[in-house]
Write a structure and sequence with these properties.
The protein contains 13 helices and 19 strands. The longest helix has 26 residues. The chain starts with a strand and ends with a strand. The protein is globular, with a radius of gyration of 22 Å. It is an alpha/beta fold and 441 residues long.
Length: 441
Amino acid sequence: MKEKYHIVTYGCQMNLHESEKIAGILTRMGYTHTDALEKADIIVFNTCCIRENAENHAFGNIGALKKLKKEKPQLIIAVGGCMTQEVGKPELLEKKFPFIDIIFGALNFDDLESLILRKKAQKKKVVEVRQEAGEIVETTKPFRTSYPNAWVNITYGCDNFCSYCIVPYVRGRERSRKPEHIIAEVQSLVKEGYKEITLLGQNVNSYGKNGAANMNFAQLLDAVASIEGKFRLRFMTSHPKDFTEDVVAVMEKHRKICRLVHLPVQSGSNTVLQAMNRRYTREKYLDEIRMLKSRLPEAEVTSDIIVGFPGETEADYLQTESLVKEVDFASAFTFVYSPRQGTKAAEMDGQIPEDIQKDRIMRLVELVNSLTRKKSEKYVGKTIEILCEGFDEKKGMYLGRDEFGRMGYFKADENAIGRFVSLKITKANGISLYGEIVAME
Ligand code: 5AD
Ligand code: SF4
């Protein structure tokens, strides 16, 4: 019988996609997937370290495996991802959880096959975390689990060094994939029937910087959007310091590109933005939104926002609230600032007490939700195009998203997954929409 694998992923889309690549490596080795942790012969943790709670979560889940490993000593437990790239973390993991078999880094997950073979040949655990990113490996075929959506990396790493962020330390310098590799990947995904492609990078707008690729981001986006076939194209994340009109012009040219830009603002206060080393001002951000909406009036913007950054005053926080209202975000991810060891912000004076952070995040979440709810209500009576991506067992309904990322639920007599559905919206409930099929492609 074939050996089975189970992967536990923490963090963002980037990590989810990296887990698809890890699944690709394991599949190539002959493993098959299992949903049941206790049935697995190898369990891989793909960790995240962007905030402390992501780390605590992984620590808790790894610790809980002690008993299983005792009952099943041949089980291989492997821990990789961003957390193992942090200074001192592999040592801490080894000490806290001596039953871990393999520790590998986010920068050398491509080596997993050889690390597993090494572990199988020896009793001793295998610890190998590469500190410097090597050449981009193009040979790992991901085992995708997100049909009809597919993620495609365009860059790895980050050079921005926002003062709160650990990503540049654990993911290394920014590297761009060659345009021909990206274009070939998207072409074959479209041929295979994928209907939504998301180009991924920490800062997509700096694609090809330093002449690493013979195209900039706008040119790449144009080339990918020119690929034939009906599919939606998204990209994330854009950085406001680099978000330029040429990208909006390409969006205007191709109806395939979703009219949604994820443009993390982080704060509405210039003092805080400067301390965060974001390299744009509130005014520049608002100018960009105006530029986007003047060319594409229907465009929506989503964002990431941090509250409780060191030194953030109530007045700074209120600047964030006022910016959120002014932009009228379609939705936003909101975070409480979490100090990360080794970053500049962790050493700053004026760390904000937890009760103030909690108060601000609660107010911000309420504000963001109220905007999202208001937008949902405007959908009632309208017909929108949904890409169906799954079936909700509890509701007994299919679900999918419109180009702005809004979730719509509906009933259908035939399998609708992977199909574009025109949906007449009959009800809005919070952020969810409910509708009836008008047409299905
Ligand atoms: N604390 C809180 N949020 C953070 N982010 C990044 N680092 C931190 C941190 N130390 C948020 C930013 C970023 C998103 C991916 O995570 O908002 O855009
Ligand atoms: Fe972190 Fe800033 Fe890079 Fe985003 S752009 S990954 S927030 S350093």
